[in-house]
Amino acid sequence: MFEQILNEIKKHSTIIIHRHKNPDGDAIGSQMGLKAILCENFPEKRIFAVGDGAGRYSFVANSTMDEIDDGVYSDALAIILDTSASALISDDRYKIAKTTARIDHHIFCEKIADFEVTDTSYESCCGLVTQFALESELALSPVSAKALYTGMVTDSGRFRYDSTSSNTHRLASELMKQDFDTTDIYSNLYADDYKFIRLRAMYVLKIQFTEYKVAYIYTDKSEADSYGFDTFTLSRSMVNTMGDIRGVDIWVNFTETDSGVLAELRSSKFNINPVAVKYSGGGHAKASGATLKDRDEAMRMLEDLNAYNK
């Protein structure tokens, strides 16, 4: 399934790897994992990774982004990872690359690149990149395997989510043949500072419910600013404070920002992706997101989510 992308990699001497904005573990893991694989197997090529900072995932090896001039793109292959919509891509200079390719596991929204592999049966983009390496007979190393395993762990919810399959465990097993420390991954991912634990406790106290048992948290801009945390932490990292409430099948975290209201939608039962798409968002069947205009639009989204339980 990856033959065309592999051929393009072999043809180009410069390869630039992109992923979505505000990266999560899967975005950084797949980007750094693929970069390491290409550097290891094609040492004669120039391989770059670009985008906004790695944030809390900066513990992933070599995750400082490369700074490159526009001219580097003129004869380059740009590979876009873990991104369903062009508006979400960090660093839109992929558009000026000579050739583009995409590897993604989200529900298909639009064609982005010249060559594309999208497969929603994979729990993570890291899983797809691992499959790419195995099918293409490209060597893995402890560095690439650790990055890819990190993304598999985060996007599968430590192998809890129902996107986890026998294929997930097969690919994880292949990665674990390399010599890397899983304890280091888990301590970086799940050992929290006291201030973060306190924030999570505050968010638990903010949980509200609609009359149809949709759980939600709404944080306005002034309150968000007062917490002293980055937007990713307040939005995506806090959504699953509602994830284990008995009787709640749908939950959403709204966070006001300068650019709109970030909505993180989750469900343990329903495909809530159509609601995200209705508001120009996207993602997975049970984990999606969108950026809304204001609080009124957020409340309209809640009404749409209520419809699943009526």
Quickly describe the structure:
The protein has 310 residues and is α/β, with parallel strands linked by helices.
Task: Describe, in plain words, how this protein is organized in 3D.
This protein has helices spanning 3-11, 25-41, 125-135, 142-155, 166-175, 182-190, 194-206, 221-227, 231-235, 273-278, 295-306, and strands spanning 14-18, 46-49, 77-81, 99-104, 115-118, 208-209, 214-219, 250-257, 260-267, 282-283, 287-292. The strands form two sheets. It has a six-stranded mixed β-sheet with strand order 6-7-8-9-11-10. It has a five-stranded parallel β-sheet with strand order 2-1-3-4-5. The longest helix is centred in the first third of the chain and has 17 residues, at 25-41. It has eleven helices and eleven strands. It is of the alpha/beta class and 310 residues long. The protein is globular, with a radius of gyration of 19 Å.
